[in-house]
Amino acid sequence: QVTLWLKKIYGNQPIPQYEVNARTVDILYNLVECNEARDRDVSLLIEDMKQKATEYEAEANYLKGLLTESLDLSLASLSSEGTNYLDVLVDSAMILETKDTSLTSFFCAINDMTSELYATESENREMELESKSIRKKLTAALKLEKQLEEDLKKTEELLEVEKAKADRQTQNLKFLRRKFEDLKISIKAAE
């Protein structure tokens, strides 16, 4: 199945070499499934758009018939302003993806879009709060890192001072031992 999909993707071009193992085959298989699901979704969307176009066309024909029969008006007899209004109405219905051009459909579509807008704004606020929280944590972590670096530097300096003291004390101790040995030898010589 993966090989067929790769041939479909690359067509007449050679398929690039890849390491055939369980992991790469799993990854490619997941890509195949995602691609097929996307293709199914696209075909459903195309069918839906065709159906909506048919419905819009039927609605337009119905309205045209209504204008022609009931009011004895034709699109040719409408003023340019009237035609513009109808075009705006049709464009609005297409943009809002309404079922028809009734006022109820427009209100429903506007309410849906308003709900989506509020949901998006709410998500944006949540993401902004989360972003602020992350920035505060990052700032605190950077301050802590800087403080730790300063503490480490001070500790290293103190260690150097203590090492120097320890070296002096070691030298003094060696000196005192030599003196002690010299005095001991002198005392024995004196006895």
Describe the structure using short key phrases.
single chain, 191 residues, mainly alpha, 4 helices, 0% strand
Task: Outline the structure in words.
By secondary structure, this protein is mainly α. It has a domain at 1-77. Helices cover 85% and strands 0% of the residues. It is built from four helices and no strands. The protein has helices at 2-10, 22-70, 80-96, 103-190. The longest helix has 88 residues, at 103-190. The termini are far apart. The mean pLDDT is 86. Residues 110-186 form a coiled coil.
Compact description:
The chain has helices at residues 2-10, 22-70, 80-96, 103-190. By secondary structure, it is mainly alpha-helical.
